[in-house]
Amino acid sequence: MEAEVDEDDGTFTNISLADDTVDSGSAALYSKQENELFIMNCDIDGDMENQVEMEEKTRLINQVLELQHTLEDLSARVDAVKEENLKLKSENQVLGQYIENLMSASSVFQTTDTKSKRK
């Protein structure tokens, strides 16, 4: 393949495709170079995809770890609330028994027998 260069501006003006035997090696070389560039681009794309994939995996792992810590914190909080609930129930039972004892000891809260008062 031959190309003529325009002397005025240095651009190619004419490309001859008539004689392929002279340039067949360069055409094959060009294809090989093109293939190598394509492979390199695929490797770069593959590396970029791997990098993006690794970043995504890292992000997901960090998110899972954060959620695990949150779950542990919530579980500990639930356990603390359960203990507090049991403690409050016990205190309420004690106070209920105390109030019941006070009411039974007080004459204000005693039941009156209406039949005995009428006779």
UniProtKB/TrEMBL annotation:
Membrane topology: Peripheral membrane protein
Compartments where located: Cytoplasm, Cytosol; Golgi apparatus membrane; Golgi apparatus, trans-Golgi network
Gene Ontology cellular-component terms listed: cytosol; Golgi membrane; trans-Golgi network
Claim: Methyltransferase is one of the keywords in the record: no
Keywords: Coiled coil, Cytoplasm, Golgi apparatus, Membrane
Coiled-coil regions listed: 57-91
A Pfam entry, by short name: DUF2205
Top-level division of the source organism's lineage: Eukaryota
Function: Positive regulator of amino acid starvation-induced autophagy.
Membership in a protein family: Belongs to the SCOC family.
UniProt protein name: Short coiled-coil protein A
